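User: Reviewer 2 asked us to show a designed sequence for the structure in our supplementary figure. I'm pasting the structure tokens here. Could you produce the per-position amino acids so we can include them in the response letter?
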């Protein structure tokens, strides 16, 4: 998707009040970050949603507590538009609330936090929940981690796949809707990784069980190798790879480092990801834009230099951009055949070992 020096004249028609999201984006998002969001929507729909592209999605920031799991992430997974995910542990912990029938509520960012504490309420900016929501979710994870299938070192993909099975069943028993991202990823066989598994309430509960002699542990090396292997398998299969990055932080770098792991560490000939789409409010000049810009990522081998025209960074809030991008994709693309990569991890690892001569 090349960007000519000049484009169409800026002459949007008057809004009618009945325009679809796709029409609104394509005709009325003309400049500034509205235009970048238009480019992001079009990049995902016209390039990354094609059948021959493996799409990795990263999640940072408190997105699932804001309801973006059932509204956007679950439908994207169900429609085959996301192939694997790298998330913060917190997003997956809070995702579990929805499958367990535990409510979160709208509030405001100016609430009296001392008063909330006295009332037993916890605040995430303008979201509040009862403290018992945390305790019940903690109890759920501690109980399932004791199950036989969780004993021993596991990749985070395997952990979340098995946790998703329990969450899907809990949703069914409670008669709830299709709310949980982990449940959807289990059923659609979408691998879900966490770059820093100890940095969340799930990790804290796992640590508590380890303190008591439990045998579950995380296997970060398996995560590093599996994600790189999935990228390599896509490329060797004649496909392209795309990164959709919501926010930044560890999930962003963990997804993008798949290419340096292949090239720099394992010595496998590769060029980098083909497509790069990031929604962020960080800045590169302060060090806050983790992994920096797509052009800087080229210098690390994370992004194919030939793919720079197919990179977009939109400086806005993910809670604004994701619903718009999701609606745009559903209107323009609909769905595609799911890749079900979870079941292909071992095949991908064998390919990785072969090309690394291991």
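Assistant: Here is a per-position design you can include in the supplement:
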């Amino acid at each position: 998707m090349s960007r000519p020096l000049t484009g169409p004249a800026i002459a949007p028609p008057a809004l009618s009040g009945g325009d679809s999201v796709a029409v609104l984006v394509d005709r009325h998002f003309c400049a500034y970050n509205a235009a970048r969001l238009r480019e992001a929507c079009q990049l995902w729909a016209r390039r990354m949603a094609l059948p021959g592209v493996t799409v990795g999605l990263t999640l940072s920031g408190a997105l699932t507590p804001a309801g973006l799991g059932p509204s956007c992430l679950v439908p994207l997974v169900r429609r085959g538009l996301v192939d694997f995910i790298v998330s913060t542990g917190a997003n997956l912990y809070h995702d579990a609330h929805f499958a367990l029938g535990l409510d979160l509520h709208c509030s405001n960012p100016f609430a009296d936090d001392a008063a909330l504490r006295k009332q037993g309420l916890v605040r995430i900016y303008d979201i509040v929940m009862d403290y018992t929501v945390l305790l019940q979710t903690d109890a759920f994870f501690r109980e399932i981690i004791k199950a036989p299938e969780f004993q021993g070192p596991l990749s985070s993909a395997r952990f979340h796949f098995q946790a998703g099975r329990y969450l899907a069943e809990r949703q069914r028993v409670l008669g709830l809707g299709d709310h949980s991202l982990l449940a959807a990823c289990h059923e659609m066989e979408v691998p879900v990784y966490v770059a820093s598994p100890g940095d969340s309430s799930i990790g804290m509960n796992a640590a508590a069980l380890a303190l008591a002699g439990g045998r579950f542990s995380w296997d970060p090396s398996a995560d590093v190798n599996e994600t790189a292997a999935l990228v390599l398998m896509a490329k060797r299969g004649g496909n392209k790879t795309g990164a959709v990055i919501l926010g930044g932080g560890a999930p962003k770098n963990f997804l993008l480092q798949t290419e340096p792991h292949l090239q720099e560490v394992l010595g496998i000939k590769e060029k980098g990801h083909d497509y790069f789409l990031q929604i962020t409010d960080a800045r590169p000049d302060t060090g806050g834009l983790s992994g920096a810009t797509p052009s800087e990522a080229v210098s690390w081998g994370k992004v194919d230099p030939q793919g720079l025209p197919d990179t977009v960074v939109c400086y806005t809030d993910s809670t604004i951009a994701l619903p718009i991008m999701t609606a745009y994709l559903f209107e323009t693309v609909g769905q595609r055949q799911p890749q079900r990569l979870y079941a292909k991890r071992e095949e991908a690892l064998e390919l990785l070992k072969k090309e690394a001569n291991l």
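For the response letter, you might also mention the following. The mean pLDDT is 94. Residues 31-355 form a domain with the Deoxyhypusine Synthase fold (CATH 3.40.910.10).
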